[in-house]
Amino acid sequence: MTTLREVLLVVLTVVVIVLIATYLTWLASRLDRLAVRVTDARAGLTSQLALRVAAAGELARQCELTELGAAAARTRAAQAVLAADSPLDDAEAVENNLSRALRSPAVAATADRAPDALHAVDVAAARVALARQLYNDAVRDVRALRGRRLVRVLRLAGRGQLPAYFEIDDALPPRGGGDGKNDGDEKNTGDGTLNGDMTGFAP
Amino acid sequence: MKIGLACPYTWDVPGGVQVHVRDLAETLISLGHDVSVITPVNNESTLPPYAVDAGHAVPVPYNGSVARLLMGPVSAARVRRWLREHDFDVLHVHEPTAPSVSLLTCMLADGPIVATFHTSNPRSKILTAAHGALQPSMEKIRARIAVSEAARRTIVEHLGADALLIPNGVAVDAFRDAMPLPTRPPGDATVVFLGRIDEPRKGLDVLLAALPALVARCGQARLLVAGPGDGEAVLDRVDPGLRERVRLLGLVSDADKPRVFRSGEVYCAPNTGQESFGIVLLEAMAAGTPVVASDIDAFRRVLDDGQAGRLFPAGDAAGLAHTLAELLADQAERNRLAERGRAVVAGYDWPAIAKRIAGVYEMVAGDVPVSVAVSSDSETMRHSA
Q: What's the maximum distance between 2 C-alpha atoms anywhere in chain B?
């Protein structure tokens, strides 16, 4: 004969199981959403990197800068072979190399000859900095959640590789009215539209 | 783009965040974007056509002041309906850690979210304690914007994430075109002060201390003081012979603020405490009034290292008197500073700021706009909460 107590026990068990299942489903949905965020951020970052190398190549062509042209060609080749699922940090070295080439005095000296092409490079570089920050932000959040013990033990995130941070030196080339005073601000904002909108700062 | 803005504070109660959301929304609309705002409001008839009522905020006493909360099921239903009806490309929530519409929006929405953090709050115990509970909502935010360096530091400390620095915008047109007040002091050597008159960090005492030396060098000099506080107490501290040179306006409305700047030859910001950002300086520059300000970090930055306004050592009344007297006697230099100020403030004009913010929208929304759908797991979230 079932007593009230046994009924209660069954009900309680069911409630606990439902709660646990709900929690796990919710955790899994957070992981899914973060995975989407990382994928989108990575797509944004790779497309900005592609735009940067295109702008750099155009500037090199217009002003016949062989060094920058070579760096751009190497970067373009590396971007072409970067598979959709391979770790992004494989590309760090060539992108760094391009950043350095973009900061060379030869590039700064093109301000008179090809101001538009140089401006396009600066805008693209600022957008890379922003896209990289958004990507690393997403990576940090996903790594934090996937690092939780429950997520690890139950393999809630599947077997996919943990996304890696993308660390390159994307400090913007010193520009801005020739005295480079605004560099700090540019790096902080780095939203890509700054060079067009901050002309008011130029002395 | 279809943009949804969430404002956490009551629309018809004066406040900086509300003004920011309003100016941003109207600028984005003028730039051709499709914008809808959701916000708590007391009197629904005060809402502009682009805003939606999220309900009444409930005042809750907290930490000596009153926090207005809006987290009930009615508001949640309204936020959900707002999301469903608009199908936004991007959502922009303001102050998402406040327990109000912005946080609700983060909890209920899916897709690209941008968040702007307005306040700086070093070592907030609440934020630290709530970090774990907030994280599921915060991790939906794809880009963070801070309006000042101090706000950015708060985000780094409490949320462990970095943020872009995009300052508040200034409605330059409103300041440039304002008429001087009919009650402006006579003469052509008026110095304007704006801020709480009994808050020592705003530095009115430094300006009052500079007055005798200033009058000695510039016979026409007068002060026009706008801001709330005990005016009698202020006049008591002024030499009786100089009292008629100090005109107190009391608290001025936002609408009159541009007129106050336009009523003087020089605007003075003698602040002694650290300010996070010199928005008032920008407003004075927008009005075309030359600025004399304390040499503190935020002001130095806004004034372009003294190129776009005069700096004096913070708290130094003699130095202030000297700087003011020099500037009041030199019309050409005032014109030059006004011109420089206008150039600086152009970078902070709302259209320029809104374009930078829209650049962030484009970045998070990606090339193909992702529609912001109502989160499929919002039901489970409510049950497990």
A: 74
Contact B183, B247 (CB under 8 A): yes
User: Chain B partners of A194 at a C-beta cutoff of 8 Å?
Assistant: 356
Q: Are residues B138 and B234 in the same domain?
A: no
> Residue B384 falls within a domain, yes or no?
no
- DSSP letter assigned to residue A199: G
Ramachandran sector of residue A175 (left: φ over 0; alpha: ψ -120 to 50; beta: rest): beta
User: Is B305 part of any domain?
Assistant: yes
Structure tokens at B342: 């206008």
Interchain CB distance below 8 Å, B363 and A130: yes
d(C-alpha A168, C-alpha A128), whole Å: 10
CA distance B210 to B206: 6
Whether chain B has a CB inside 8 Å of the CB on A47: the answer is yes
Q: How many CB pairs under 8 A join A and B?
A: 99
C-alpha B103/C-alpha B381 separation (Å) is 13
Give the integer Cα–Cα distance in Å for B151 and B96: 13
Could you list the residue range(s) of the whole structural domain that residue A11 is in? 4-201
Tell me the nearest-neighbour CA distance from A165 into chain B, angstroms.
14
Contact residues on chain A for B383, CB-CB shorter than 8 A: 22
Structure tokens at B305: 């290292």
In tens digits, chain B (385 residues) has pLDDT values of: 999 999 998 888 877 888 899 999 999 999 999 999 999 998 889 899 999 999 887 776 655 556 667 778 888 999 999 999 999 999 999 998 888 899 999 999 988 999 999 877 666 666 667 777 888 888 899 999 998 888 888 888 877 788 888 988 998 988 998 898 887 777 789 999 998 888 888 899 999 999 999 999 998 899 999 988 888 888 888 888 888 899 999 888 888 899 999 999 999 999 987 676 778 899 999 999 999 999 998 899 889 888 999 999 999 999 999 999 999 999 999 999 999 999 999 989 999 999 999 999 999 987 533 333 334 343 333 333 3
Distance, in Å, from the CA atom of A190 to the CA atom of A195, rounded to the nearest integer, reads 9
The reply to whether B223 and B197 lie within a common domain is yes
CATH number at residue B324: 3.40.50.2000
- DSSP structural state of residue B88: -
| Domain count along chain B | 2
Which residues from chain B sit within 8 angstroms of residue A46, using beta carbons?
A: none
Tell me if A40 and B136 make a contact (CB, 8 A cut-off).
no
Same domain, B257 and B291: yes
B207 in the same domain as B132:
no
Asked whether residue B78 falls in the same domain as residue B142, the answer is yes
Whether ipTM > 0.90 holds is: no
A193 and B345 in contact by Cβ < 8 A? no
**Does the residue B380 lie in any domain?**
no
